[in-house]
Amino acid sequence: MSRCRCHSGKTEKRCCGPLHAGKAAPTAEALMRSRYAAYAKGMVDYVLDTTAPGPMQQDDRAAWADQVRQFSAGTRFLGLRIAEHVDGEEEAFVTFFCTLEQGGRDASFGERSRFVKVGGRWAYHSGQPA
Ligand SMILES: [Zn+2]
């Protein structure tokens, strides 16, 4: 049994696995966790497909995919802590802190992410440093 890459302590099957397989995320927090795990696993399409139209979506999908792929490959994903989840019907906010390392250097950061519903499913819209 492999532990989920979002550091929940659960098995992947009971955590982000079903979301990666196409199941809709029940909450914005669940989507956030699954996106972190997708970055850790290099699941580029999942990251792109769960990004809402807006400032973080790029027109050139191939170039965007390359950026995500490079970020994924060049980063060690060492920790994730959810600090706050403000739920809503069509909009939600998740504040998180992730522990990352790039080229042996600390690249950790915190973000307050905004999520919106797109076609009834949660998607990442944008974020501000937290
Ligand atoms: Zn997970």
Return the average pLDDT rounded to an integer: 97
List ligands, each type once: zinc ion
From the N-terminal CA to the C-terminal CA, the straight-line distance is 34 Å
CATH topology (level 3) name: Nuclear Transport Factor 2, Chain: A
Query: What structural class do the secondary elements suggest?
Result: alpha+beta
Top keywords for this entry?
globular, Nuclear Transport Factor 2, Chain: A, 4 helices, 130 residues, alpha+beta, five-stranded antiparallel sheet, 5 strands, binds zinc ion
Explain what the structure shows.
The chain is of the alpha+beta class and 130 residues long. The protein has one domain: Nuclear Transport Factor 2, Chain: A (Roll). It contains 4 helices and 5 strands, in the order ααααβββββ. Strands 1, 2, 3, 4 and 5 form a 5-stranded antiparallel β-sheet that branches. The longest helix has 14 residues, at 28-41. It starts with 16 loop residues before the first helix and ends with a strand. The model has no long low-confidence stretch (mean pLDDT 97). The protein binds zinc ion. Zinc ion is lined by residues 4, 6, 8, 15-16, 33, 37.
What is shown here, in short?
The chain has 130 residues and is α+β, with helices and mostly antiparallel strands. 28% of the residues lie in helices and 35% in strands.
Explain the layout of strands and helices.
Elements: H1 17-20, H2 28-41, H3 44-49, H4 61-73, E1 75-86, E2 91-102, E3 105-106, E4 109-118, E5 121-129
Antiparallel strand pairs: 1-2, 2-3, 2-4, 4-5
Bound molecules: zinc ion.
